[in-house]
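Internal tracking record. Fields below are filled automatically when a chain is submitted to the structure queue. Please do not edit lines marked as system-generated. If the sequence contains nonstandard residues, flag them in the REMARKS field before resubmitting.
Queue: standard
Priority: normal
Entity type: single polypeptide chain
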Amino acid sequence: MKVDRRTLLVGGVATLALGATPTAAYEVEEKSLRQLAEAIASGTVTAKALVEAYLARLDAVDVKGPGLKSVIERNPDALRIAEALDEERREKGPRGPLHGLPVLVKDNLDSADAMKTTAGSLALLDAPTPARDAFVVQRLREAGAVLLGKTNLSEWANMRGRASTSGWSGRGGLTKNPYVLTRNTSGSSSGSGAAAAASLCAAAIGTETDGSIVSPASVCGVVGFKPTLGLVSRAGIIPLAHSQDTAGPMTRTVYDAALVLDAIAGLDARDPATAKLPKSLNARPLDSARGERSGSSARGERPGSFTAGLGAATLRGARLGVVRSLVERSWSQAAVTKDALAALTTAGAVLVDVELPTSAYEEAELEVLLFELKADLDAYLGARGGPMKQLTDLIAFNQVHAAEELPYFGQQHFLAAAKKGPLTSPAYKKALATCGLARTALHGLLEKHRLDALVAPTDAPAWHTDLALGDHYTTSFSTPAAVAGCPHLTVPMGFVGELPVGLSFVGAAWSDAQVLALGHAFEEATHARKPPRYFAR
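SYSTEM-GENERATED OUTPUT FOLLOWS
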């Protein structure tokens, strides 16, 4: 059938905007991006009505009710943007499947609008508005998404001091876990994980250096995807360390994560890491439902669609390496993990026990992060302008405003980073070379056993938030993929009591599409995710 420009392809199905009268109050809880796109395309709801529905839900859940405090700031222009997108849809048709859908982004992504970008710190409240959007924000706007607001985070991406409490920032306060309010959200993309879990947005963007997407996603019962380093540009994101920093989607389904990745991935001249994107991933035939080609425009090339292969995704014949030591250490979720591994086997996967040592680069990782924290943050602050021009200015600000910024933990990492030399220092080069062993080890293990991916529990269940003593991490599977720069997907696999836990899929660099397909097949085989009920105890 011939489909005109007013038709949107959603999940491979042509859906016509028939002009039906939208309902006054559309129910957004647990609605996926695909469902919301279908609802807008059919005329059931408008982008403006969706924004109104999510704003009402933010009032009911994030501010009142359980008071999750996952959103640090709302976009005052969200309704106006939504109205403009509705008008554009009527006149020209949709830009693509994200047209008119509300998303939240972490408060370390620059946005050249009425919102602030602070990394959760009071020190940046008076900083100038960024001159331009972060590349990820730019991509989302181009795709037609509505920026609903910014999410709270562990201040400075959890790299300010030891014994920190994840989910807390001087500006935003403490974000609560929507499953059990006294439990932690982990970090540093705490607000993004909690907001996605509580249906306060259609999707959220998080960032990760080591665990900051996958850990909060796991303990908040959502999907989190850390892409291969270089697949998504970091330009305009407040940095921690360029060797490991990346942004990625946090959603309620793997399909939705792939849909967001379609929008935000691609080459960017502002981030040299994206130059490593393989040419095979740059063949994007159509840029949107309008039939536009992206080519090599100033906006950058986009990789092929990550949703394309999900419909046929299967676990049958997949060879998965089970990191047995992590399985055995995760005693609290032993039964859930056993069931998840059994589901993989039932679905046709071949499981192979493996071990992936990390002790060789654990100390070196921290050394690299401290060196790069100073260099990268000084560069960002210098370009941003304002009273905070370098790391030492932040340290001084925190000391002066200790009552607001340092009531629970200090800034030992900031102080240690400030003492580091330039990135030409032999100590930095040695640590960086040691960290290079991570990718060699991970790829070597995958090749030796002919594996499609590694699997293991992502994290232990959420711990009780402890502002006095800080976080209580136990098991975690984030470091190998983080240091290696490889893709890492976490998918809900079940519950320990009332607390969700996730299963990780880690693949070789640039195997992002395959990792997403494996996770999607697992999700379809288990349907383990359940929405939170906002327990008050």
